[in-house]
Amino acid sequence: MSSNNAAVVEIAQTAGKFSSSIVLQADNKYIDVKSILGLFTTLVSSKGYELHVHGPDAEEAKEAMAAVFAKHGLNINVVGE
Hints:
single chain; about 80 residues; alpha+beta
């Protein structure tokens, strides 16, 4: 579980650097990636994720988030506008 904890914290911290809305879709749930609690309950149960990023710094946010998910071996599909 500890590696998952590290992933959750890093994902939330990375998302917090951006003003864009960053939402993780897992199954039929939508979680604000800046919410550590939401991430904890979701990253455990799902295998594939979609990341929806909207806002003024969306492009930078997409690249940073994709890199963090990949670093932790999480399968993520970044969805555009």
